[in-house]
Amino acid sequence: MNMVPPRQPNETALDEGQAASPAGSVPASAPAAAPVSGSMAFDDVVSGAFDAVQEQDLPLPSKRVLQPEADSPKLHKVLAQAGLGSRLEMEQLILEGRISVNGEPAHIGQRIQYGDTIKVNGKPVRVRIAPPPPRVLAYHKPAGEVVTHDDPQNRPTVFRRLPRLQTGKWQSVGRLDLNTEGLLLLTNSGELANRLMHPRFGLQREYAVRVLGALSSEEKQRLLDGVKLDDGMAQFASIEDGGGEGANCWYRVTIAEGRNREVRRMFEAVGHAVSRLIRIRYGAMMLPRGLKRGVWLELDHRDIERLTTAAGMPQSGEGPASVRDTGGRGRHFGKGPRPDGKGGGARAGASFAKDGKPAGAGARGFGKSPGKAPAKGAGAGGQPDPMKTSYGYIGQDSLQRRRERDAARDKMPQKGRKPGRSGGR
């Protein structure tokens, strides 16, 4: 299981300037809130008990091995498929030291991967290598970490805890500010990240919010109808009471966009300061129960397929986006004859999704028309959440499934194990 042991204590992290309360918990006398979904209860999230279950030791993280995967294509085979000669001829060129990969001399049997730069006799060669499949991490962000790769103030970043990628880098799906906690999705696929963040999909974010003072009925209605912020109007799709005591009142809110500090600014616009903010859902992905603060969980292929399908992305091996040419000269690619003698053509994948619309978007009801103002009221947020309505929530049992898979894998004979990283991708 690709998880990193927590480095922070299990006590609740507090935001700056928040009012004193017993670890931000909801007292026993507070009215119980309705469950968020399935086995996930709102009072578990706000009490700090949410990530305190299943205390057994977590396995050590996978070693940071950066060699190509075992199923990556071999160099001489890729070059032969590119029309440079037979496999035997390519092996001979490798033996003669006339082929390099990423500036280093190639060797017989070498495997290459997406993003590698290949040169023959010092000249770059265009080859077609499928990009790695999307990987997605669910990270339980604690307060005090920033969502950036390079912070000028040298504050702790969420990326320091993540596994190292062989190619590319982790990209966050949206951001959480310094003092906001909860679910943060990260992926190695820029296309998936962009689709999950794009306003046209209207994917809802759900938060547990603690504010100073109870909201009146009029203030709730203002937040549902829309309040004016410096960067435009903003509104919640729903607001539900979440208990609390005295000055500390919890609410469960959903919103279909993710502007900078938007939730905090909306409550401030009606006269209430936010003392704690926890994201518990993004689209259909929920904060996995038992996932401790400061710990990440890699989603398995089933959860990732739900995310990519809902975002309108082709699955692995589908569509022209699954293959990319590398090492070419940009604009001049495709003007000459191809190795198969069928003439030149545009770069593979160049015409995919030029208009930014996912395949079948019209039939599935994704998104909104450009420039169309969202409807006001409890139904705000555009179209129904496609991941929620099509597939139901995911992530609730992801951690438990991962534990079960790892336990089964540990019982397998060593010779029967599949090489490479454990767990789903």
Helix-strand layout with pairing:
Elements: H1 42-47, H2 75-81, H3 87-95, E1 99-101, E2 104-105, E3 118-120, E4 123-124, E5 127-129, E6 136-141, E7 171-172, E8 180-187, H4 190-197, E9 205-212, H5 217-225, E10 227-229, E11 232-234, E12 238-245, E13 248-255, H6 262-269, E14 274-282, E15 285-286, E16 296-298, H7 301-310, E17 324-326, H8 361-364, H9 386-391, H10 398-411
Parallel strand pairs: 8-14
Antiparallel strand pairs: 1-2, 1-3, 3-4, 5-17, 6-8, 6-16, 7-8, 9-13, 9-14, 10-11, 12-13, 14-15
Helix pairs in contact: 2-3
Features:
19% helix, disordered C terminus, nine-stranded mixed sheet, 425 residues, four-stranded antiparallel sheet, elongated, Pseudouridine synthase
CATH class value: Alpha Beta
CATH architectural designation: 2-Layer Sandwich
- Low-pLDDT stretches are 3-39, 54-66, 317-391, 418-425
> Between the first and last Cα atoms, what is the distance in angstroms?
11 Å
**Counting H and I runs of at least 4 residues, what is the number of helices?**
10
| Mean pLDDT score | 71
Secondary-structure element order, as H and E? HHHEEEEEEEEHEHEEEEHEEEHEHHH
The largest sheet is: 9 strands, mixed
| CATH superfamily descriptor | Pseudouridine synthase
Q: What is the C-alpha radius of gyration, as a whole number of Å? A: 25 Å
Percent range for β-strand residues: 15-25%
Count of extended strands = 17
| CATH topology heading | Pseudouridine synthase
Shape: elongated
Percent helix: 10-25%
Number of domains: 1
- Derived from helix and strand composition plus strand pairing, the structural class reads alpha+beta
